[in-house]
Amino acid sequence: MKKTAVLLATLTLAIPAQAAQLYRWVDDKGRVEWRDTPPPANARKVEKRSVGGSVIETSTLPYSQQQAVKNFPVTLYAGNCGEGCDKARDHLVRRGIPFALKDPQHDVEGYRKLTNGGMQVPLLFVGRERFAGYEQGAWDRLLDTAGYARQPLPGYTPPKPPAAPAPAKPPAATTAPLVPGDTAEPPPAPAP
């Protein structure tokens, strides 16, 4: 009981300290003073500052999740391939995994280079590890090994689907000859 009263009294005194006013001024002898009480009338260069409680900038993710995201970023390549891609996306969302969603149809050549010519989707990258196709157990083992949580964390929002690429422009018509000295006009007819 006595400990509770002491704790409450300490907390009551600490609350006003978090929102305290602090004054800085130069006195008549040229010394800089810092006080929590207003300065005397003859003070020069008076500054009033509000002092709040100490704030440590934090992420919404716990430290272990921050490390997993930093060291093993998750990227899912999936398009409109049907049930397999839908299950893959849903699996990551259900676990609350922060991931980048990319559609291989938006950059076919880049995707082929990434996969050594293959076009299988879904394709999951967890850091440098990759898994082609969707298999729940294998994906869970890969994500668990990387340190990702099994349940969504508070405040999780799934990624938005990638934007559709801009339509390709038709090639511009060229008027330059294909072969030097060649014109696109037929030769003149011989004279009779």
Please, could you describe this protein's structure?
- The protein is an alpha+beta fold and 192 residues long.
- Among the domains are: 49 residues, no CATH class; 84 residues, Glutaredoxin.
- The protein is built from 5 helices and 7 strands, in the order H-E-E-E-H-E-H-E-H-E-E-H.
- The longest helix is centred in the first third of the chain and has 17 residues.
- It is elongated, with a radius of gyration of 33 Å.
- About 10% of the residues have low confidence.
Characteristic terms for this protein:
alpha+beta, Glutaredoxin, 4-stranded mixed beta sheet, 5 helices, elongated
**Morphology call:** elongated
How would you spell out the order of helices and strands?
HEEEHEHEHEEH
Number of beta-strand segments: 7
CATH superfamily of the domain at 63-146: Glutaredoxin
Low-confidence stretches: 14-18, 173-187
Average pLDDT over all residues:
75
Oligomeric state of this protein: single chain
| Biggest β-sheet: strands ordered side by side in the sheet | 5-4-6-7
- Determine the fraction of residues in helical runs and give it as a percent range: 25-40%
Question: What's the CATH topology name of the domain at 63-146?
Answer: Glutaredoxin
Structural class: alpha+beta
**Biggest sheet, in brief?**
4 strands, mixed
| CATH second-level architecture of the domain at 63-146 | 3-Layer(aba) Sandwich
CATH class category of the domain at 63-146: Alpha Beta
- Span between N and C termini? 126 Å
- Beta-strand proportion: 15-25%
Continuous helix count: 5
What is the alpha-carbon Rg in Å? 33 Å
